[in-house]
Each structure stands twice: as C-alpha cells, then as structure tokens.
Amino acid sequence: MIIHCREAYEDTISIVTEWQNAGGPLEHCGVFHSFSGTQEHAYRIIQQGFYIGVTGSITYNKSHELRQTIANVPKDKLLLETDAPFLSPHPNRGQRNEPSFLHWTANQVSKLKNTSLESIARSSTLNANALFNFTN
C-alpha cells in the first residue's frame, strides 16, 4: 500500500489501525510516500509496519523539523523517492524532478545518518526489495 498523506496524519493512522485490526498485514505493508509528518507520526507509522518515504523536500532550507525526524528514523525503515515530476531537491527546486536528481536526497539522508551515500543507497534498495517483494 502506498499512502500519500498531507496534513491528515491522525486520521490516516487511525484508518490504518482499523484496517490492521480487521486483518490487514502488520509487516512490510506499505510506505507513507513523501512523508512530511512529525517524529511522533513517524514512530507510529513504523510501529504499524510501514516505511517512511523521503523525497527532495528533505533538502529544502525550511525543512528543519523534517530533517530532525528523518535523522531519527532507522535506515531499515526508509525509502528514497523522487515524487517525479514534483519536489525536486535543492539545487534543482522548481525544475521538473527526475530520477537522476535522487542523489541529492540520498546525500542529505546520508549526512543526517552520519553514514556513507553507499550505505543509504544499499539500505533503501533492500527496503524497496522487501516492500515490493522484488527478487534479484
């Protein structure tokens, strides 16, 4: 399941909880795409078996709270996303987004996690493989 939630995290988390209580899966069940919520939202979403999708908005000057939140999300719960054609990372903000811009998002996450770009790319790829049941 891919959930795009904007300014409705409490309602969305409540709906997901009802769905899971009715028999929905509790592990690798989806991603909160283009996450923009708080640390508390991220914690609750992860507890429900979802991944957190990180887009170019993590690179914006005014995204301090989002960067702090993502810094605290475990690498094994993060997915890197383009949200193409929207949310191009800085320095391409305002341009049509494309997959080749993803390295700016990944670089920002690697700085927040104090780890290598390769480590972030590897963990995000493994997470996508687990979520979407990709095999090599």
In short:
The protein has 136 residues and is α/β, with parallel strands linked by helices.
How many discrete domains? 1
Strand order of the largest sheet: 1-2-3-4
CATH-derived architecture: Alpha-Beta Barrel
- This entry's quaternary arrangement is single chain
Would you tell me which CATH topology applies? Answer: TIM Barrel
The description of the largest β-sheet is: 4 strands, parallel
| N to C succession of SSEs | EHEHEHEHH
The number of distinct helices, counting runs of at least 4 residues, comes to 5
CATH homology group: Metal-dependent hydrolases
Which class best fits the helix and strand makeup?
alpha/beta
Strand content: 5-15%
Low-pLDDT parts are none
Specify the helix fraction band. Answer: 40-55%
Q: In total, how many beta strands?
A: 4
Spatial extent as radius of gyration: 14 Å
Quote the average pLDDT: 95
Distance between the termini: 22 Å
| Overall geometry | globular
Query: What top-tier CATH class fits best?
Result: Alpha Beta
